[in-house]
C-alpha cells in the first residue's frame, strides 16, 4: 500500500523535515544516501521524494498529490524517467551501472528530470562502484540519485562524500505498537511483533502467518523442556525445532523469540510486567520466573546472542542448537 507524506512523517520526522526544506527552497541534492536498518522506510521515502519532483499538482510546495498521472506511474513502477537498480543475484554488477549511465546520457522521455534508485547500494561490485563514482562526479543536469543501504560502511568513502547522507532511525516500539493496532493487529500481539521487526508490512504478514504462530508454540515448549533431562531436550529438538526452523532466517527468528522469552522473565522479576511481549502467556511466564534467577537469565540471553553470531558465521545449525540448549540448561536452578 502506498504511504502518503503525512503517514511516512510519523515514521521518519527528521528525514522528511530535511527533505521538505530542500523541496520548498528548490535545493534538492543531486545524490542522497539513505542509510538505516531494514523496514525504516528508505525505499518508500525515496519514491515519495521522486513523486514530489515529478508531481504536476504538488501540495503546499512539497507534498506529491498521489493522484496525478506521474504520481500513479511512479507508485506502480512504470514511469519512463525513474529507474530502480537492484542486485542481480548477490551483487550489483558493472553492466547494470553502465546501462544506467547510457540511459541517463539521453534526455528525459517526458521532462528534463531523471531519477534513479539503487537498492542495497552496499552490494555493488568494486567495478560497479567505481563506475558509479564517475557518474556521481559529473551528474547530468536534472538527475537525482538515491542510494539505499543497511551497510553504509561497505560503500566507498569517495561515493559517500558525494552524497547527502540521511540516517533513518528505527521506530520506537511504542510507535510501532500504535501503528499495528491502528492497522487491525490485536493489542495482545502487537508488542511481540514490534520487537521482531521495524517494518509495518512485515509485522502485518507475521501476524497472519501460520508458520510464525507455530514457531511461538515450539519456542515456548523448548523453554519448558530446559527443565527436563538432556535426552528429552534432544528429542524435542529433533521432533519440533529442526523440522520447523529450516532456513537460516527462520532459525534467527526462532532464536529471537527465545531471547524475548528470557527478557520477559527478567521483566517479571523486576516487576516491569507492562514491558513483557508474550502477553497471552503471562501466567505461565510468572511460574517460570519463580524458578530461575536474574543472573541465570542474563547468562542464557548471552548464550542465545552467541548462538546467533555462530549461525551468522555459518556454523552447522544442528550442532549450534544442540550446543545452545545444553548451555542454556547448565546450572539452571529448576533442572
Strand portion, in percent?
A: 5-15%
Secondary-structure element pattern, one letter each:
HHEHHEHEHEHEHHHHHHHHH
Task: Say which CATH homologous superfamily of the largest domain is assigned.
Answer: P-loop containing nucleotide triphosphate hydrolases
Provide the helix percentage: 40-55%
CATH class of the largest domain: Alpha Beta
Please name the CATH topology of the largest domain: Rossmann fold
CATH architecture of the largest domain: 3-Layer(aba) Sandwich
Overall structural domain count: 2
Number of strands: 5
Q: Which blocks of ≥5 consecutive residues have pLDDT under 50?
A: none
Shape: elongated
Main β-sheet: number of strands, strand sense, barrel status?
5 strands, parallel
End-to-end distance, in Å? 49 Å
Radius of gyration: 24 Å
- The main sheet orders its strands as 2-3-4-1-5
Structural class: alpha/beta
In short:
The protein has helices at 5-11, 13-24, 42-54, 69-75, 94-104, 126-137, 157-160, 173-182, 190-196, 200-207, 210-225, 230-244, 248-269, 282-289, 294-312, 317-329; strands at 31-35, 82-85, 114-118, 143-149, 164-167.
What would your notes on this structure say?
The relative contact order is 0.09. α1 (5-11) packs across α2 (13-24), α13 (248-269) runs antiparallel to α15 (294-312) and α15 packs antiparallel against α16. Strands 2-3-4-1-5 form a 5-stranded parallel sheet, sandwiched between helices. The protein folds into 2 domains: 5-167, P-loop containing nucleotide triphosphate hydrolases (Rossmann fold), CATH 3.40.50.300; 209-329, Zinc Finger, Delta Prime, domain 3, CATH 1.20.272. β2, α5 and β3 form a beta-alpha-beta unit. The chain has 16 helices and 5 strands. Helix content is 55%, strand content 7%. With 335 residues, the chain is of the alpha/beta class. The chain has helices at 5-11, 13-24, 42-54, 69-75, 94-104, 126-137, 157-160, 173-182, 190-196, 200-207, 210-225, 230-244, 248-269, 282-289, 294-312, 317-329, and strands at residues 31-35, 82-85, 114-118, 143-149, 164-167. The longest helix has 22 residues, at 248-269.
Amino acid at each position: 500500500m502506498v504511504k502518503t507524506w503525512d503517514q511516512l512523517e510519523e515514521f521518519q520526522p527528521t528525514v522528511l523535515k530535511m527533505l521538505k526544506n530542500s523541496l520548498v527552497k528548490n535545493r534538492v541534492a543531486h545524490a542522497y544516501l539513505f542509510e538505516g536498518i531494514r523496514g525504516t522506510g528508505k525505499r518508500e521515502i525515496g519514491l515519495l521524494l521522486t513523486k514530489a519532483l515529478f508531481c504536476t499538482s504538488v501540495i503546499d510546495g512539497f507534498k506529491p498529490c498521489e493522484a496525478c498521472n506521474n504520481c500513479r506511474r511512479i507508485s506502480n513502477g512504470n514511469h519512463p524517467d525513474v529507474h530502480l537498480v537492484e542486485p542481480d543475484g548477490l551483487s550489483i554488477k558493472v553492466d547494470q551501472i553502465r546501462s544506467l549511465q547510457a540511459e541517463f546520457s539521453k534526455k528525459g522521455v517526458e521532462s528534463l528530470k531523471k531519477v534513479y534508485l539503487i537498492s542495497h547500494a552496499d552490494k555493488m561490485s568494486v567495478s560497479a562502484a567505481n563506475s558509479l563514482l564517475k557518474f556521481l562526479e559529473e551528474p547530468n543536469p536534472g538527475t537525482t540519485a538515491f542510494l539505499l543501504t543497511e551497510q553504509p560502511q561497505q560503500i566507498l568513502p569517495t561515493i559517500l562524500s558525494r552524497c547527502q547522507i540521511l540516517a533513518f532511525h528505527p521506530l520506537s516500539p511504542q510507535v510501532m505498537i500504535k501503528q499495528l493496532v491502528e492497522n487491525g493487529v490485536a493489542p495482545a500481539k502487537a508488542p511481540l511483533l514490534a520487537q521482531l521487526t521495524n517494518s509495518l508490512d512485515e509485522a502485518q504478514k507475521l501476524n497472519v502467518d501460520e508458520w510464525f504462530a507455530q514457531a511461538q508454540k515450539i519456542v515456548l515448549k523448548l523453554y519448558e523442556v530446559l527443565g527436563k533431562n538432556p535426552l528429552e531436550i534432544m528429542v524435542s529438538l529433533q521432533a519440533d525445532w529442526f523440522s520447523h526452523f529450516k532456513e537460516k532466517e527462520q532459525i534467527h527468528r526462532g532464536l529471537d523469540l527465545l531471547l524475548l522469552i528470557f527478557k520477559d522473565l527478567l521483566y517479571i522479576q523486576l516487576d516491569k510486567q507492562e514491558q513483557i511481549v508474550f502477553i497471552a502467556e503471562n501466567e505461565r511466564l510468572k511460574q517460570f520466573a519463580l524458578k530461575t534467577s536474574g543472573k541465570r537469565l542474563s547468562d542464557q540471553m548471552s548464550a542465545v546472542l552467541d548462538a546467533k553470531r555462530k549461525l551468522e558465521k555459518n556454523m552447522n545449525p544442528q550442532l549450534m542448537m544442540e550446543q545452545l540448549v545444553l548451555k542454556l540448561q547448565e546450572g539452571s536452578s529448576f533442572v
